[in-house]
Recover the amino acids of this structure.
């Protein structure tokens, strides 16, 4: 039987109104690094460890609507190995905490932040793997 091709990563794409301010937020408040493209830059792939998120300048007439406004769900979710340490790091760096660190009924220690455009991003640690 032939080997099945493997998926090796994924990245959510967030449309942002102020591109550079969002790049700075992901870098300074959340500890991500990034590569920027465009002249002037209007697209970035931000990364931390093996996780990535893409930021793209929204068209000028575009109205952003974060997922939570439609169905109460996140725009992106990151799995982490130490949610408490990352939560404390983000607080110290001035990240906008959306909901505080707590254990969810689905066995995850989780918290959420918002970016500068109101997108909800969650960070969760699988307690079953501890």
């Amino acid at each position: 039987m032939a080997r099945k091709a493997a998926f090796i990563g994924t990245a959510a794409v967030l449309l942002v109104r102020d591109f550079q301010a969002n790049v700075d937020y992901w870098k300074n408040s959340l500890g991500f690094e990034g590569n920027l493209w465009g002249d002037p830059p209007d697209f970035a792939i931000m990364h931390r460890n093996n996780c990535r998120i893409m930021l793209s300048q929204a068209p000028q007439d575009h109205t952003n609507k974060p997922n939570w406004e439609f169905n109460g769900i996140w725009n992106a979710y990151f799995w982490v190995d130490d949610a408490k340490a990352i939560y404390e790091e983000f607080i110290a760096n001035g990240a906008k905490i959306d909901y505080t660190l707590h254990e969810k009924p689905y066995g995850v220690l989780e918290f959420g932040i918002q970016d500068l455009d109101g997108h909800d991003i969650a960070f969760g640690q699988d307690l079953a793997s501890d």
About this structure: The two ends are 35 Å apart (CA to CA). The chain has three helices and eight strands. The first helix runs from residue 19 to 28. Strands lie at 11-16, 33-38, 41-48, 51-57, 76-79, 96-103, 108-114, 120-126.
